């Protein structure tokens, strides 16, 4: 499940976009100013940034420049009320990846989001597999040996993240940063509890769990 940051000071637009993306099963954060956006980008890692250009105090172009200057790599979808070649040229030169002019249709927003997220190919794959576990992102289902496994929302999100990054080890801090939103109640115990519940639902007796705890380092998913 991709994590998206919305930077938009128009609360009507921000709420509409956030609710739509949540409906489409993304993890979403929202801030209203460029300064808050840069703080959020330093504290968390995002898969996509939706950035309004007409922000108070620090505009979206400056936010984009500063983010790219410190090595920020997430694709940036710029929102603007201006539909001029010059405006777009400035945005692309600052490090933007795509442009969407207000007002826009939410289905077009979805299409552009999917296209930007598709750059790492496994990020938006509809179906992920690990051993006898199959996760369908579109249907929001998980099966084990063909039988449906009922997961809570964050259990599904946690499993999907690990399945999108097989054999990569993530510390508990990194998992909390990538999977949980800033306003959620989270701690190291949250990770342990989620892993325990997942293993109870997807493991097979006598076979090592696909969710492995690397002592002193973190967790990874083994796809073998």
Please provide a written account of the structure:
The protein has 224 residues and is of the alpha/beta class. It has two domains: 3-117, Response regulator (Rossmann fold), CATH 3.40.50.2300; 127-221, Winged helix-like DNA-binding domain superfamily/Winged helix DNA-binding domain (Arc Repressor Mutant, subunit A). Helix content is 40%, strand content 21%. It contains eight helices and eleven strands. The protein has helices at 11-23, 34-43, 60-69, 85-94, 106-117, 153-164, 172-179, 188-202, and strands spanning 3-7, 27-31, 48-52, 76-80, 98-101, 127-130, 133-136, 141-144, 147-149, 211-214, 218-221. The strands form three sheets. Strands 2-1-3-4-5 form a five-stranded parallel sheet, with helices on both faces. The chain has a four-stranded antiparallel sheet with strand order 6-7-8-9, covered by helices on one side. A two-stranded antiparallel ribbon has the order 10-11. It starts with a strand and ends with a strand. 30% of the residues are buried.
What's the gist of this structure?
The longest helix has 15 residues, at 188-202. It is elongated and about 65 Å long. It has helices spanning 11-23, 34-43, 60-69, 85-94, 106-117, 153-164, 172-179, 188-202, and strands spanning 3-7, 27-31, 48-52, 76-80, 98-101, 127-130, 133-136, 141-144, 147-149, 211-214, 218-221.
Shape: elongated
Classify the beta-strand content into a percent band.
15-25%
Count the strands?
A: 11
What is the H level of CATH, i.e. the homologous superfamily of the largest domain? Response regulator
- Report the uncertain regions: none
The assigned CATH architecture of the largest domain is: 3-Layer(aba) Sandwich
Strand order of the largest sheet: 2-1-3-4-5
Q: Could you say what the CATH topology of the largest domain is called?
A: Rossmann fold
| Tally of discrete structural domains | 2
